[in-house]
Amino acid sequence: MGETRSVPLGGLTSPLIKFLYMKTNTKVILLTGASSGIGYDTAEALAKQGHKVYAFARRVERMQPLCQFGVVPLMMDVTDEQSMKQGVQAVIDNEGRIDVLINNAGYGYFGSVENVPLTDARHQLEVNIFGLARLCQLVLPVMRAQHSGRIINIASVAGRAVFYYGGWYHVSKYAVEALSDALRMEVKPFGVDVVIIEPGAIKTNWGIIAADHLAETSKGTVYERTGEMMAYNLRSMYESRAISHPSVVRKAICRAVNARRPRTRYRIGRMATAIVWFHHLLPTRWWDALLRLMGTRKLM
């Protein structure tokens, strides 16, 4: 994507110059998980910057308000092969190219490894890793033919450090990290960049949903007491002001889209870097003991 210049729009004062800049730097973007939260806000922000955004999710009706900004909302289920093929083909048929794929679709399911039903574990891996990987496979022939493209995968610090009762979620996010690293080396010779976004704790419904799943899967089991305490701490954290606003993720994605030479990783949000460094530096038993506190006492 060498033709893209990373001139900030805020530094351009003439409306005509802004218009010409946006026209010559317009990218065709395929964004998943756009029906709410970070995906929805990112679709709006990128469209306002002049990009052609195709927003995908299972619930198309939730994305209809984005039409006013020029976003094209379409249905896609990232666990369904035909749905993904049709979505990618629709963008190619309409635009003749795909410049950026943003793999944002994903969710968190917390619970002990023993208690989480394998059907639920498999579904989380289908959404968080296999759907992401399949979309990469589907857009890469187009990007290679263009000799330009950018794949942005939304990972997490959960792919760099493991938290209490997050086993299956961490499996999916560690896999996103590994897959992205491998893919980056493979496709670089074809002019395709691979970028990883690593948010820390972000104030969305993600934490509440994960806490609900944890409480549900722990009920009536030997993990009930610690599971309920961990769920309480998760809810308290995600309802507090101690964690970052979702806008930090949206801004990082936009930077990754617009940068002439994007970073390979954008680690963002309060405590994100500290968490990764503590996990790296602390002896494993110390880290385990620190995390077990979340299952034995109220922290907030």
> Largest sheet, order of strands side by side?
3-2-1-4-5-6-7
CATH level-four homologous superfamily name = NAD(P)-binding Rossmann-like Domain
- N-end to C-end Cα span: 46 Å
The unreliable regions are 1-14, 17-23
Q: What does this protein structure show overall?
A:
- The structure is a single chain.
- This protein is α/β, with parallel strands linked by helices and 300 residues long.
- The chain has one domain (9-203, 244-269): 3-Layer(aba) Sandwich (Rossmann fold), CATH 3.40.50.720.
- 49% of the residues lie in helices and 12% in strands.
- A seven-stranded parallel β-sheet has the order 3-2-1-4-5-6-7, with helices on both faces.
- It is globular, with a radius of gyration of 20 Å.
- 40% of the residues are buried.
What attributes characterize this protein structure?
300 residues; alpha/beta; Rossmann fold; 7 strands
Topology:
Blueprint: H1 15-24, E1 28-32, H2 37-48, E2 52-57, E3 72-75, H3 81-95, E4 100-103, H4 118-146, E5 149-154, H5 167-187, E6 192-199, H6 206-218, H7 224-239, H8 247-258, E7 265-268, H9 272-281, H10 284-292
Parallel strand pairs: 1-2, 1-4, 2-3, 4-5, 5-6, 6-7
What does this entry show, briefly?
The protein is of the alpha/beta class. It has helices at residues 15-24, 37-48, 81-95, 118-146, 167-187, 206-218, 224-239, 247-258, 272-281, 284-292; strands at residues 28-32, 52-57, 72-75, 100-103, 149-154, 192-199, 265-268.
